[in-house]
Write a structure and sequence with these properties.
heterodimer, A: about 250 residues, alpha/beta, Rossmann fold, 2 domains, four-stranded antiparallel sheet, 9 helices, 10 strands, B: about 325 residues, mainly alpha, 14 helices
Chain lengths: ~250, ~325
C-alpha cells in the first residue's frame, strides 16, 4: 500500500477529565475526500485544530506524506502543504478580495521582508491569486472589499485562500456553515471540482453534501472514531445509525 | 483573465484619492516651507519654534502609528526612544562629538537595539500585558537616566550648543532647524507610506486584523511585529535627536510615562493607521496645549473634553473626520 497523504495515529486530547479526542487513528489516501461527521460536541473542530497544528495534542502522531509533523506549528504545516479553512468565516474584512488571496500567495513566494515596493501592484502575486479566485468563481469580485461579500461568497473566498497556499491537503471545517440552499449548491459544486486536484478532509453537518462528496468517511462520537469506511458501509453500520444518523433522521 | 488583473491592479477610484492626497500634501509642504519667512514678516518668530516642536512630536507619533495603528501593539513606552535618542546627542556632545552625522546614526542604532531587545521580550505578550511590559521598560529607561549622575541625572544635561552637520554649524538658527525637521518628517512620512503598502506592511496589517488567519496561510506574525517595533524605535530616536537640538538640553523628563501617554493621544486623536493623522494629531495637541494653557491652568480638562468629542464623533480621529467631511462635500 502506498503511503497515505495524511496518517493519524492514536491522537488524544483531554481537557481535564473530558476526552475531546480519544485515540483517533485514520488514514487519508492521496486524492481522497474524507469526510468526518459526528453529532455536535463530538470533537470534530478540536480534531481539525490538532491536525492543522493550532492545538497541540496530548499524545499520538500526525504524518503528512510520510513526514512526522506532530511537533510542527501551524505555520510550518502550512508550508508543507496542509491548509485549513475555518468554521467561522475568518477573512481579512478590510482587505480587498484579491489581497486576501494574494497574501496567501505571498506567504510562499520569496521573502516578505520587502519594505518599499507596493505589494498591491505585484502582478505575479495578483495573477496567481486571480487563478485561485477564478477557480472558486469569485474572479469578478476581486476588487471588492472582502467584508462586503455575502456570506456564501466569503465561504468561497475561504476556499480560494486555502487553495492559494498551494496546499496538497485541504482541511475544510464546515464550509457550508450558515449558508442557504443556493450558496450550498455552489459550494458543493466547488468542492466536487476541488476533489480532482486536492486531497480533502471535510468536516460537515450537511449530510446530503457529505454523502454526495465523500469517498470515505469517519464517524466521530465523543472523540472516538466509531466507524470508518465507504459512505454506504458507514451508512448501514448499526452503531452509526444508533449514535448519529438515527438522531438526524428523527430530527 | 489578464485584462481582469490589469483592471483590478489599476484601481481607478483609489488612484484618484491618492492623487488628491498627494496634491494636498504638496500644498501643506509648500505652506510649511514658507512659514519661517511669513512668521518673520509678521513679527511672530516663536511660531517657528512651536511649529518645529509640533513636527518633532509629529515624527515620534508617526513612528508610534506604525506600531499602534498598523501593528495593533499598544506600546506605552514609546517616549523612551525619544529620550534615548536625545541622550545619544547629549552624551556624545559631553564627549566632544557634536556632529549629526555621528549623533543621528548612533541614536537610531541605540534605539533600534533597545527596541529589538525589549520588543523581543514584550511581544511574547499581547493586550494589557504588552501595555504593562512596554510601560515597565520605558520606566526602566527613565530611572536609568535619572540615576546616571555623570550625565546630569535628574537635572538633565545641557548641550554645548546645537549639533553641526558635516562640521558645519548649519542649524544654529531656528528657521534652519525648522527646515531640517521638516525634511526629516517628510522623508519619514513618505518612507513609511511605502513601508505600509509593501509586502512587509501587508503582513503587518493582516496580522493586526486577524493573526490566526495569517498563521493559517503560513505567516508567523512575530518577526514582522518585532521589525515594525524596531523601525518605529529608530525613528522615534531621531525625533529625540531633533528635540535635544531644539532645546539644547536633554532631560529624563522626555521619557516619562506621561510623555508616552501623550504620544498615544496624538496617534488616536489624529487617526490610527493613517500615518498623516498622527502628525496632525501631534500638531493639534501641541496647539491646544499652547492655546488652552493661555486661558486656564486647568487646560487639560478642556483637552479631555475635546479628545472625548473627537473619539466619539469619529473613530478614525481627525483623519477619519476629515475623510467623512470630504465624502460629504
Amino acid at each position: 500500500m502506498t503511503t497515505p497523504l495524511l496518517s493519524v495515529r492514536n491522537l488524544r486530547k483531554s481537557y481535564g477529565a473530558l476526552k475531546v479526542t480519544d485515540d483517533v487513528s485514520l488514514d487519508v489516501a492521496s486524492g481522497e475526500l474524507h469526510a468526518i461527521i459526528g453529532p455536535n460536541g463530538a470533537g470534530k473542530t478540536t480534531l481539525i485544530h490538532q491536525l492543522s497544528g493550532s492545538l497541540p495534542s496530548d499524545s499520538g502522531t500526525v504524518h503528512l506524506a510520510g513526514e512526522d509533523v506532530t511537533p510542527l506549528s501551524m505555520v510550518a504545516r502550512v508550508r508543507r502543504g496542509l491548509a485549513r479553512s475555518f468554521q467561522i468565516t475568518s477573512i481579512l474584512d478590510g482587505f480587498s478580495v484579491l489581497e486576501n488571496v494574494a497574501l496567501a500567495v505571498q506567504a510562499r513566494s520569496d521573502s516578505s521582508f520587502r519594505f518599499f515596493r507596493p505589494s498591491a501592484g505585484e502582478t505575479a502575486l495578483n495573477a496567481e491569486a486571480m487563478t485561485a479566485l477564478d477557480r472558486v468563481g469569485l474572479a469578478d469580485r476581486a476588487g471588492r472589499r472582502a467584508g462586503s461579500l455575502s456570506h456564501g461568497e466569503k465561504r468561497q473566498l475561504e476556499l480560494a485562500v486555502a487553495l492559494a497556499t498551494n496546499a496538497r491537503l485541504l482541511l475544510l471545517d464546515e464550509p457550508l456553515a450558515g449558508t442557504g440552499p443556493e450558496e450550498s449548491a455552489i459550494l458543493v459544486g466547488l468542492m466536487r471540482a476541488l476533489k480532482a486536484t486536492h486531497t480533502i478532509v471535510l468536516i460537515e453537518h450537511d449530510m446530503d453534501a457529505v454523502f454526495a462528496l465523500a469517498d470515505r468517511m469517519s464517524v466521530l462520537v465523543y472523540g472516538r472514531v466509531i466507524a470508518s469506511g465507504a459512505p454506504d458501509t458507514v451508512r448501514s453500520d448499526p452503531a452509526v445509525r444508533a449514535a448519529y444518523l438515527g438522531e438526524e433522521e428523527a430530527a | 483573465m489578464s485584462t481582469l488583473v490589469a483592471r483590478i491592479s489599476a484601481e481607478p477610484p483609489r488612484r484618484r484619492a491618492a492623487l488628491s492626497g498627494t496634491a494636498l500634501a504638496g500644498l501643506v509642504l509648500a505652506a510649511l516651507a514658507a512659514l519661517p519667512l511669513a512668521a518673520e514678516a509678521a513679527g511672530l518668530p516663536f511660531l517657528v519654534v512651536t511649529a518645529t516642536r509640533m513636527m518633532i512630536f509629529g515624527l515620534a507619533a508617526l513612528s508610534l502609528d506604525l506600531v499602534l495603528g498598523y501593528g495593533a501593539m499598544v506600546s506605552f513606552g514609546h517616549a523612551a526612544f525619544i529620550g534615548l535618542g536625545a541622550y545619544a546627542v547629549g552624551i556624545l556632545d559631553a564627549h566632544g562629538i557634536r556632529d549629526l552625522a555621528v549623533q543621528a546614526p548612533a541614536a537610531a542604532v541605540t534605539c533600534a537595539l533597545f527596541a529589538l531587545v525589549t520588543g523581543a521580550i514584550s511581544l511574547r505578550t499581547r493586550g494589557v500585558y504588552f501595555i504593562m511590559i512596554t510601560l515597565a521598560f520605558g520606566q526602566m529607561a527613565y530611572f536609568f537616566m535619572v540615576s546616571l549622575a555623570a550625565y546630569g541625572g535628574d537635572d538633565g544635561l545641557p548641550l554645548s550648543g546645537r549639533s553641526t552637520l558635516f562640521g558645519m554649524r548649519l542649524i544654529e538658527g531656528d528657521p534652519a532647524l525648522f527646515y531640517l525637521v521638516l525634511a526629516v518628517l517628510a522623508v519619514a512620512l513618505l518612507a513609511l507610506r511605502r513601508v505600509v503598502a509593501s509586502r512587509f506592511g501587508r503582513v503587518l496589517r493582516g496580522s493586526r486584523d486577524n493573526a490566526v488567519r495569517m498563521q493559517a496561510i503560513g505567516f508567523s506574525p512575530l518577526p514582522y511585529r518585532l521589525t515594525a517595533y524596531v523601525i518605529a524605535g529608530a525613528i522615534a530616536g531621531l525625533a529625540g535627536v531633533l528635540l535635544a537640538n531644539q532645546a539644547e538640553f536633554v532631560s529624563p523628563a522626555y521619557m516619562s510615562w506621561q510623555r508616552s501617554g501623550e504620544l498615544i493621544v496624538m496617534v488616536v486623536l489624529g487617526g490610527m493607521g493613517t500615518l498623516v493623522g498622527p502628525v496632525v494629531g501631534a500638531a493639534a495637541l501641541i496647539a491646544l496645549e499652547e492655546v488652552l494653557a493661555h486661558y486656564s491652568d486647568h487646560w487639560r480638562l478642556g483637552l479631555g473634553v475635546m479628545l472625548v468629542a473627537v473619539v466619539l464623533l469619529s473613530r478614525g480621529g481627525l483623519a477619519g473626520l476629515a475623510a467623512k467631511i470630504g465624502r460629504r462635500a
